[in-house]
From TrEMBL:
Chief localization: membrane
Pfam families assigned: SNF
Bilayer topology annotation: Multi-pass membrane protein
Gene Ontology terms for molecular function: symporter activity
Designated name of the protein: Transporter
InterPro entries named among the record's database cross-references: Na/ntran_symport (IPR000175), SNS_sf (IPR037272), YocR/YhdH-like (IPR047218)
Length: 464
């Protein structure tokens, strides 16, 4: 057994392990499956021409998503600590500078910031469950549905209430630890999410426009695909798998050595992609049946679909199911965003798991208030407005911009370079336990193709 392998088995007793490979896959898929799948993927697909975009997206999952996910899980499993300490330990065992842990620091900070405004959006989903269940969409017009969403954003009190509810749900799960919290939650929420999604897809088949949606998603029209669309696919493939946020390092630290990192990463990527495509099949038939715009942008979920559900048979029932689905997806991702920070606090301070979760969640909740106020009271406040590139960008906009466009790709890029160039090849071979040809493919991707692809996204985002 190599030095890295024996070291990676230390600390298991205190931390515990996932009870099975399936539990890890559910947790990792729960992290990956979030608003990015149910909310963002359908509308960016609509904006970029459908099937051709989907093909490029799948290619990007292969050349960016899976290689970096494997690298992050490798670091977590070898370190058996919080992401920052795991990164430092792996670097030291490979005689590399401990300064490489900056990648994990950036990722954890990004996860913390993202959760602060992600919780606000998760609160929107929680609020809409109630609206849908009470039939508030029934017979609605574009104006009435728009006023409903606008009224929510304009009310700091309502947003604070739902932000608090969502953050409390996240803290409640993370505070209970690995077996009683994370694992129990994902084994309930993820199957429920799949069942709900299949039910909504089943409903979509009755709209009379299901075939049109299938054609839109799977019939490539490369004339509609622009260079910008390719770069959006690159960026979304990176974001949707929860990469660059130290999440997979945190989850990997609980992973048994007899589980194949490669096979589980591929399984998670496939499940994540299936959910994204099913979300498209659930949403686009409803959109087309109502003569709505497929590329309607972020408003597709909170304005366009409520209008459609409000004017369709059984719309109240399936509208409610859809927003419960959206809430579950946001909840599983919120849990994963908080976990790396809680791990770090628990290991670096005297606070136990519950105290660490409350501290991390409370700090996130406080930062989220800034995002809430930027949607109404501080709507005219642009902290970096003196720079032309950030003119008119609110606090909410800036937090989203810096995490998605700078912090996540930078963390992922550093991780790919570190694992590809500074970790001993034999250590990687031993730990990943892949067939020679498969390992060779992954190794060349993580050394050459993946860093270049991420660097292109990074530079493009900075210049856009």
């Amino acid at each position: 057994m190599s030095q890295s392998n024996s070291a990676s088995d230390s600390g298991i007793g205190a931390r515990g392990l996932w009870s099975s490979k399936f539990a890890f896959i559910l947790a990792a898929t729960g992290s990956a499956v979030g608003l990015g799948n149910v909310w963002k993927f359908p509308y960016v697909t609509g904006e970029n021409g459908g099937g051709a975009f989907v093909l490029v997206y799948l290619l990007c999952i292969f050349i960016i998503g899976i290689p970096i996910m494997m690298a992050e899980v490798f670091i977590g499993r070898n370190g058996r600590h919080n992401p920052i300490t795991s990164f430092r330990l792996v670097a030291e065992r490979n005689l590399a500078s401990s300064g490489w842990r900056i990648s994990a620091i950036i990722g954890m900070l990004a996860a913390f910031i993202i959760l602060s405004f992600y919780s606000v959006i998760g609160g929107w989903a929680a609020s809409y469950v109630g609206h849908a269940a009470m039939g508030d969409f029934t017979g609605g017009t574009a104006e009435s549905v728009g006023e409903m969403f606008g009224g929510l954003l304009a009310s700091p009190a309502k947003l604070l209430l739902w932000h608090t509810v969502f953050m409390a749900l996240v803290v409640l799960v993370v505070a209970r630890g690995l077996k009683g919290g994370l694992e129990r939650a994902v084994t309930i929420l993820m199957p429920a999410l799949f069942i709900l999604l299949l039910m909504v897809v089943g409903y979509a088949t009755t709209t009379g426009h299901f075939g049109e949606a299938v054609s839109f998603l799977f019939n490539p029209d490369f004339s509609a695909l622009t260079v910008n669309g390719v770069l959006v696919a690159l960026g979304h493939a990176f974001f949707t798998l929860s990469l660059g946020m130290a999440i997979m390092m945190a989850y990997g630290s609980y992973l048994s050595r007899d589980v194949s990192i490669g096979r589980t990463a591929v399984t998670v990527a496939i499940m994540d992609t299936v959910v994204a495509l099913l979300a498209g099949l659930a949403i686009f038939p409803v959109v087309f049946a109502n003569g709505l715009e497929a590329g309607a942008g972020p408003g597709l979920i909170f304005q366009t679909l409520p209008l459609a559900f409000g004017n369709m048979p059984m719309g109240t029932l399936f509208g409610t199911l859809f927003f419960v689905l959206l809430l579950f997806a946001a909840w599983t991702s919120g849990i994963s965003l908080l976990e790396p920070v809680v791990e770090w606090i628990e290991e670096k301070t005297s606070f136990a798991r519950v105290g660490s979760a409350v501290i991390a969640g409370g700090a996130c909740w406080l930062l989220g208030i800034a995002s809430i106020l930027s949607l109404n009271v501080w709507a005219d406040v642009a902290p970096l407005g003196m720079f032309a590139a950030f003119e008119g960008k609110t606090i909410f906009d800036l937090l989203d911009y810096f995490t998605a466009n700078i912090m996540l790709p930078l963390s992922g890029l550093l991780t790919a370079i570190f694992v590809g160039w500074f970790v001993a090849k034999e250590s990687l071979k031993s730990d990943l336990a892949l067939q020679e040809s498969t390992f060779g493919l992954w190794y060349n991707l993580i050394r050459f193709v993946t860093p270049i692809a991420v660097a292109i996204v990074f530079v493009y985002n900075l210049l856009a």
